[in-house]
Design goal:
The complex is a heterodimer of chains A (about 160) and B (about 425). Chain A has about 160 residues and is an alpha+beta fold. Chain A has helices at about 1-5, 10-15, 65-80, 85-105, 115, 125, 145-165, and strands at about 30-35, 45-50, 55-65. Chain A has a three-stranded antiparallel beta sheet, covered by helices on one side. In chain B, about 40% of the residues lie in helices and about 15% in strands. Chain B has 15 helices and 17 strands. A seven-stranded mixed beta sheet of chain B has the order 4-10-9-8-7-5-6, with helices on both faces. Chain B has a four-stranded antiparallel beta sheet with strand order 13-14-17-16, with helices on one face. A two-stranded antiparallel sheet of chain B has the order 1-2. In chain B, helix 5 (about 105-120) runs parallel beside helix 6 (about 135-145) and helix 12 (about 305-330) packs parallel to helix 15. Classes of the chains: A alpha+beta (about 160), B alpha/beta (about 425). The interface between A and B is medium-sized, with 20 and 18 residues.
Chain lengths: ~160, ~425
């Protein structure tokens, strides 16, 4: 069960059992965005407040498997209160950790590769606790679970930026 | 294990397992325990060999060439039609069996052709709460196209059986009834012939989704009393890429074509065409020929064993599995669907403690156990059951008691891990 324990690290199980920043903020003023995996029904609802260039607050709702929900919880702890630019960087770094496999899954490796594959050196130190999720790449089908909340957060930041401009 | 119904000699599972090359595989250094036949079945060597032999000795396009292999390919393709029709006791197999891609395409064909010609805005269509998306969404697409159907659903009770108390009221004024023969989530085998009878007296046409029942039990369309039935080869140990739509001659005769192209016409002019009679009318383009050969081999394989024996084996193993799960896991495990009995097929959708189905399936994979996690393309049913997903173990003629023990071992490990 070595692989399994690599996937289900204690820290992942901890965030699954006791998710951080769980709940929903009043929307408006908070911006609300949903991430949905139609294949498995996993669902993440993020409500977020961007203020003075910072992701001032966010809450996570939804339900799903341990990977999708712990990833959302770990993400919320990592990005809350951070400047938006830093959050975007972290999203890229995290998706980089997952990306080669995701690109292979989605596109059979023959296109869009330039965008998603070939991640720059991933600095695992920067990821802190999030590095616990790297075991997921050994289980390609589950990568979509791990990236669900990150994609939703990126979408939410885009929407907020678009509204502001 | 509970005894098989009388008249059905038990299967020699040990010998049968040797027929399936894929069962020789190991997964994570353990022998594969394939419990996902409801999603797609494994193929016996005979099916693979028949298709290889066809490609190596016979392949040519059908219904065109006059050379020897073209004649042979055509004969094999048309023979598959008759074999598939006889398998469900169709009165006139050569005319009533349409080859499609799969069950989904068969049901879409009915919605697209019969539905489009016969349903108007406001007409009522009666489905069930346990339908697969393939027997819901095509009717919704049609509904949007024609300005709104009155979609009704036969509800289910907490055991996962259809509630028929209100059937007379529900069926009143209905033009079409779409019903699953056996639920791909609950394993419930529905009283299709009774519902068809009531539907017919209300003047409705009945289309049955046979995807789960046809591969696992004797099915004959005459006693079912339906007007259409759809099923897929790959769920009955044949290849992917070919499915069947059986329909009554008089209905097929009156239906417009589905896809346009070669093979489905009598004549084409610059401004018009005349369609071919059924079944060719519904089979535009080069059909799945090798797959038809594989389907013939699969039906022969199942027929040689005997559908009644297969059903008896799977029913007995279902009963055994339900009892063992209860004995070993008690109230930690919830199996959806009816209790063991004659209206229960070999589909075991599980919820184990509060472990998510995907996590369960992931842990089971480490034991070599293949189950399907998710909503099983039945989201309305999932909502009714109050779950997001289940882990589904489904049985086959080669499943046995050892498979159930490994499943339980894996569930216990998941409980330990997520405890």
């Amino acid at each position: 069960m070595a692989d399994l324990e690599e996937l289900y690290r204690e820290i992942i199980l901890d965030h699954y059992r006791s998710p951080r920043n769980r709940g929903e903020l009043d929307s408006p003023p908070a911006h609300r965005v949903e991430g949905f995996n139609p294949l498995c029904g996993d669902e993440v609802v993020i409500s977020m407040v961007v203020k003075d260039g910072k992701l001032a607050d966010l809450k996570i709702g939804g339900s799903g498997c341990s990977i999708s929900q712990s990833s959302a919880s770990l993400m919320s702890a990592a990005v809350k209160g951070k400047p938006v630019g830093e959050v975007r960087q972290l999203i890229n770094t995290f998706k980089g950790m997952m990306s080669i496999h995701e690109a292979t899954l989605e596109h059979d490796g023959d296109r869009d590769g330039a965008e998603a594959a070939e991640p720059e050196e991933i600095d695992l130190d920067k990821l802190g606790e999030l590095a616990a999720l790297q075991g997921v790449v050994k289980f390609p089908v589950r990568i979509k679970c791990a990236t669900l909340s990150w994609n939703a957060l990126a979408q939410g930041l885009d929407e907020v930026a678009a509204e502001a401009s | 294990m509970t005894p098989a119904p009388t008249g059905a000699a038990p299967l020699n599972v040990e010998a049968l397992r040797k027929d399936f090359p894929l069962l020789m595989r190991t997964i994570n250094r353990r022998p594969i325990v394939y419990l996902d036949s409801a999603s797609s079945a494994l193929q016996p060597h005979a099916v693979i060999a028949a298709m290889t032999h066809y490609y190596e000795t016979t392949h040519a396009n059908v219904h065109r060439g006059v050379y020897a292999t073209a004649e042979e390919a055509t004969a094999l393709y048309e023979r598959a039609r008759v074999v598939a029709g006889r398998f469900i006791d169709a009165p006139d197999p050569a005319r009533e069996v349409v080859f499609t891609k799969n069950t989904t395409e068969s049901l879409n064909l009915v919605a697209h052709t019969w539905g489009r010609a016969n349903l108007r805005a406001g007409d009522a269509v009666l489905l069930t709460e346990m339908e697969h998306h393939a027997n819901i969404v095509p009717w919704m697409i049609l509904s949007e196209e024609i300005g709104g159907l009155d979609l009704r659903y036969i509800p289910i009770d907490d055991d996962g059986r259809l509630v028929l108390d209100d059937l007379d009221r529900l069926v009143d004024g209905v033009k079409l009834v779409g019903i699953s023969t056996m639920s791909n989530v609950l394993g419930t085998i529905n009283p299709v012939s009774h519902i068809a009878e009531v539907a017919h007296s209300a003047g409705a046409v009945v289309v049955a989704d046979g995807a789960q029942l046809v591969p696992h039990a004797p099915v004959d369309v005459r006693s079912l009393g339906v007007d259409f039935i759809a099923f897929s080869a790959h769920k009955m140990m044949g290849p992917t890429g070919i499915g069947v739509l059986w329909g009554r001659t008089e209905l097929l005769d009156a239906m417009d074509p589905f896809l346009g192209g070669g093979g489905m016409i009598l004549d084409v002019k610059l401004d018009s065409f005349r369609p071919a009679p059924p079944p060719a009318r519904f089979e535009a383009g080069t059909p799945p020929i090798a797959e038809a050969v594989g389907l013939t081999a699969a039906i022969k394989y199942l027929g040689d064993i005997g559908m009644d024996r297969i059903r008896a084996h799977e029913l007995a193993l279902t009963n055994h599995a339900l009892a063992r799960l209860d004995e070993k896991l008690g109230s930690d495990v919830r199996v959806f669907g009816p209790p063991a009995g004659p209206d229960r097929g070999g589909v075991l959708s599980l919820a184990y403690r509060d472990v998510h189905a995907h996590d369960l399936a992931q842990v089971l994979d480490q034991f070599g156990v293949c189950v399907r996690p998710g909503h099983h393309c039945a989201k309305p049913l999932m909502r009714r059951l109050g779950v997001q997903a289940t882990a589904r173990a489904s049985l086959s003629l080669f499943s046995d008691e050892r498979d159930i023990e490994v499943l339980i071992e894996g569930l216990l490990e998941a409980g330990r891990l997520f405890g």
